[in-house]
Amino acid sequence: VLLSVPPDAGDAVRQLCGAHGARATQIGTASGSPLAIAVGAEQVLTVGVDALREPYETAIPEAMGEAVAAV
Predict the structure, then answer these.
(1) What separation in angstroms does the CA of 19 have from each of 1, 8, 12, 13, 68?
(2) Under 8 Å CB-to-CB from 66, ≥6 apart: which residues?
């Protein structure tokens, strides 16, 4: 599960997960555009946030066989 929380909530999330036997690990931070993903020191993906809007808004309805209006 990927979770996005405000920067000051990380400790609380880790404590909550720990209390329920789950593990939580911070893997990065999010800010602005573009979305950039790095593995170690290697940047593996850079994409404008605007380009992610349609997949974000249509993936679940399409998977459920629902018609999706133009985004």
Answers:
(1) 17, 19, 11, 10, 40
(2) none
Each residue of 7-39: b (16+ CB within 10 Å) or e?
eeeeeeeeeeeeeeeeebeeeeeeeeeeeeeee
pTM check: above 0.85: no
Give kind and range of the element (H or E) at residue 46: strand 42-47
**Could you tell me which residue, 10 or 71, shows the higher pLDDT?**
10
* DSSP code of residue 21: T
Euclidean distance between CA atoms 54 and 33, whole angstroms: 16
Q: List CB contacts of 54: < 8 A, sequence separation 6 or more.
A: 71
pLDDT digits (tens, 9 = 90+) for 40-51: 889 999 999 888
